[in-house]
Amino acid sequence: MSSVARAIRPLASRVLAQKPIAPVCKATPAFRFPRGTRSFSQSPLSQLKKYTESHEWIELAEGGKTAKIGITDYAAHSLGDVVYVELPEEDLEVSAGEPVGAVESVKSASDVLSPVAGKIIRGNAVLEDKAKTINESPEGEGWIAEIEVADVAELEQLLDEAAYKETIDA
Amino acid sequence: MSSIRLVARGVDLAAARAAALNLPRASIGSTVLRRELSSAATVRPTVSRSLRTNITVAATAPLAANQTVRYASSSNEPLSKTQLYDLHVERGAKMVPFAGFDMPLQYTDLSHVESHMWTREKASLFDVSHMVQHHLSGPGALDLLKKVTPSSLDKLAPNTSTLSCLLEEGTGGMIDDCVITRRSEDSFYFVTNAGRRTEDLAFLTAEIEAYRSQHGADSLKWEVLADRALVALQGPLAASVLQPLINTANHTPSETDLSTLYFGNCRELHLTLPDGSATAHPLLISRTGYTGEDGFEISIPTSGAPNLPRQVTELLLADSSKSRLAGLAARDSLRLEAGMCLYGHDISTAQTPPAAALGWVVGRDRRDPATATFNGASVILSQLASPKTIPQRRVGLNVEKGPPAREGAVVVDIADPANPVEVGVVTSGLPSPSLGGANIAMAYVNQGFHKKGTELAVKVRNKVRKATVVGMPWIESKFHRPS
């Protein structure tokens, strides 16, 4: 089941990711941005999802002030059976690269690092009882923290999906 | 067999070392039995690491130099491969560096937990060819082994084995754990950990040279059986998988009947290949293992038959409803539930057998200070006589629901909750697959806190989690013994 989901999801998000490109390109054909480097200002905020080299994702909510953070499909698959997720406390202020939680599989414990600075709104309570949700839906229901983003521009430094995929295929 | 974890941890070594420095000296504890610790290891972080580190370790096998794993583990040396490397890759293994070898962590057909449970319910085949197989013979073989180990080897019958350890002169610290099999009056087969290869070979070379200088060059013949493969078939179906493959043409019916091959016994037997012929060599089949289950370890010669390890492995895996390949991940969780030590984590040269709760490896007839001549005898025998002089000992801990307490987690006494006092350190720990994910751990705790039932706590990411000292193992051992 989950492997099917894994196989499908990246495709879906790839399709999503390509949507904004068409209008952008029409407007400025001379400045065709390669996929993965299109800048923030040209992307609808509601569809902005970025990745880190350390296998976290962050997706801005509509309105562009808050975001959800989780671990990638690839990370969840690599870690294997997740048995415990440590969630962040509300109102915790973090800088980029600081832990907002931890994911424990049978064999390892991994910190989940915030891709950007901000203040924690809440952890995903679903994971308290069902840590395995991370394996089933790492980039969906298995999100780990919701954060109030301090500076949305900070997302521009992060990897887009294509660039992230390059890091894991390398 | 400390290896995998050590290698995996390399990235974080500085942090781990820093953590270790804050801990009491016996930070590496040990446990129960035996040997292969080495193979057990998995990617277990001491301190929490980033996803990137864990995933890199798991997926791409970075090389890490660790002082205790010098053999082929520094970053420029290529990893060694076992005779079964190609088979692992063909069967979808996730390969990781472990003790200088590129070893399977797990396979695509089963997750870590599934593979663990498969071993408890059916049978799993582990490649443990990275471990070091030795043969020692000659008129001085028994004397030499009685100096470097505390075991009652002169009482060991031919073709029986015992868990033992190599002891450091003077301190009685454990240089490695090992399993020693007596093949005949003056001939022994023994297996040591891959992660301790360099240290063990240096130690044995020095001891053997010293013995030869006193007793003559012909007193000892020592051989590292580098060309042999070693596989472990473990689980309740192990005997039913192996028995039909035993070739009956070359041996008497009583020899080929595995039901009389008990835990700790070994026999040399041939298997029957699919074309009906017998294997090119007899295999040394020992009823033993490192999972707590019934099972066998099979030493496979390759001289003139380089393909024999693969042939044997494919035979053992022929019925995938019974036996499957398993890797280091499952091996580590299985041995921990069985209360067995992983060298480099649960035991080290900083511990004597009594401190590691392994006092039973010291033979009954070797406890008389007047005649005990093994390395470190005075230290070890005085600890056995006065256990209260042992500063720290290895214990089992059950840790409350929540995050697992892993290696490096500090154990605290919370008799006064406002003022927790550090009393030990966890050396292995994980959520036990066989116990529904309950958190179990091995730890070294100070004298006085080691009794079963003692209420303690562990710190995980600075949060205090309750823990209780318990006996080991956590799962009942299912060794095949005479009824």
TrEMBL record, chain A:
HAMAP family: GcvH (MF_00272). Its cofactor is (R)-lipoate. Keywords: Lipoyl, Mitochondrion, Transit peptide. The modification N6-lipoyllysine is found at residue 107. InterPro entries: 2-oxoA_DH_lipoyl-BS, Biotin_lipoyl, GCV_H, GCV_H/Fam206, GCV_H_sub, Single_hybrid_motif. Belongs to the GcvH family. One of its GO terms (biological process) is protein lipoylation. This is Glycine cleavage system H protein. PROSITE patterns: BIOTINYL_LIPOYL (PS50968), LIPOYL (PS00189). GO terms for cellular component: glycine cleavage complex; mitochondrion.
UniProtKB/TrEMBL annotation, chain B:
Its EC number is 2.1.2.10. InterPro entries: GcvT (IPR006223), GcvT/YgfZ/DmdA (IPR028896), GcvT/YgfZ_C (IPR029043), GcvT_C (IPR013977), GCVT_N (IPR006222), TrmE/GcvT-like (IPR027266). It is an enzyme of class 2 (transferase). One of its GO terms (molecular function) is transaminase activity. Substrate binds at residue 297. It catalyses: N(6)-[(R)-S(8)-aminomethyldihydrolipoyl]-L-lysyl-[protein] + (6S)-5,6,7,8-tetrahydrofolate = N(6)-[(R)-dihydrolipoyl]-L-lysyl-[protein] + (6R)-5,10-methylene-5,6,7,8-tetrahydrofolate + NH4(+). It is found in: Mitochondrion. GO terms for biological process: glycine catabolic process. Residues 84-365 form the GCVT N-terminal domain. Keywords: Aminotransferase, Mitochondrion, Transferase, Transit peptide. It comes from the Eukaryota. Residues 393-474 form the Aminomethyltransferase C-terminal domain. GO terms for cellular component: glycine cleavage complex; mitochondrion. Its main location: mitochondrion. The glycine cleavage system catalyzes the degradation of glycine. PANTHER family: AMINOMETHYLTRANSFERASE (PTHR43757), AMINOMETHYLTRANSFERASE, MITOCHONDRIAL (PTHR43757:SF2). The glycine cleavage system is composed of four proteins: P, T, L and H. Belongs to the GcvT family. This is Aminomethyltransferase.
